[in-house]
């Protein structure tokens, strides 16, 4: 019975820490914590060690994305210049820092093009004004919106109990 209780306490503390990270980061950057969590779910399935590679049409690596929020190397460089991190490894080592970086990127994007689902798509597909990138932004926004709706339903269901 004791191992079960230890496991249960551990899982509850991980869940509370997880929620704290999203709530803190979202509050800090004036974002909805469920939107930030939805992005993390889509980008990495909450894998804090995720590293993505963005390739051109011939397979050459253009950039990399790091941690559960898949922070692009361009934003890694900006965070380094601001003194927030020393390297991308800092984001991989600290999931809460990664979530804060993701909320910062999201806030930066929404300030650029507005607080809309379409603009939210720029988190993944950037700001290029080509028809293909607009299609990618909208598809990404639809995915995040669907995850967000499931998170809202989950939280409502839990709150009703």
Describe the structure concisely for a colleague.
The chain is mainly alpha-helical. It has eight helices and three strands.
Commentary on this structure:
- By secondary structure, the chain is mostly helical.
- It has a single domain (2-160), classed as Lysozyme.
- It is built from 8 helices and 3 strands.
- The protein has helices at residues 2-28, 33-44, 73-81, 88-93, 95-113, 117-120, 122-125, 131-160; strands at 51-55, 61-66, 71-72.
What is the element layout, followed by pairings?
Blueprint: H1 2-28, H2 33-44, E1 51-55, E2 61-66, E3 71-72, H3 73-81, H4 88-93, H5 95-113, H6 117-120, H7 122-125, H8 131-160
Antiparallel strand pairs: 1-2, 2-3
Helix pairs in contact: 1-2, 1-5, 2-8
Q: Domains counted in the coordinates: how many? A: 1
SS-derived structural category: mainly alpha
Helix fraction, binned, reads 55-70%
Q: DSSP helix count?
A: 8
- CATH uppermost class: Mainly Alpha
- Strand content is 5-15%
Low-confidence spans: pLDDT under 50, at least 5 residues?
A: 4-17
Any guess at the CATH architecture?
A: Orthogonal Bundle
Distance between the termini: 26 Å
Give the overall shape. Answer: globular
Kindly identify the CATH topology. Answer: Lysozyme
Strand order of the largest sheet: 1-2-3
């Amino acid at each position: 019975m004791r191992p079960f209780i230890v496991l249960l306490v551990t899982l509850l503390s991980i869940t509370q820490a997880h929620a704290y990270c999203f709530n803190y980061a979202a509050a800090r950057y004036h974002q909805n914590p469920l939107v930030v969590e939805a992005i993390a779910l889509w980008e990495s399935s909450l894998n804090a060690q995720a590293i993505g590679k963005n390739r051109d049409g011939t397979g050459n690596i253009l950039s990399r994305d790091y941690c559960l929020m898949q922070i692009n190397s361009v934003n890694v460089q900006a965070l380094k210049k601001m003194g927030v991190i020393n390297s991308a490894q800092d984001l991989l080592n600290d999931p809460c820092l990664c979530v804060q970086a993701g909320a910062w990127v999201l806030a930066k994007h929404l300030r650029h093009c507005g607080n809309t689902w379409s603009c939210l798509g720029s988190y993944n597909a950037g700001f290029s004004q080509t028809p293909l990138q607009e299609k990618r932004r909208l598809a990404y926004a639809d995915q995040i919106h669907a995850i967000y709706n499931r998170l809202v339903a989950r939280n409502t269901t839990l709150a009703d109990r």
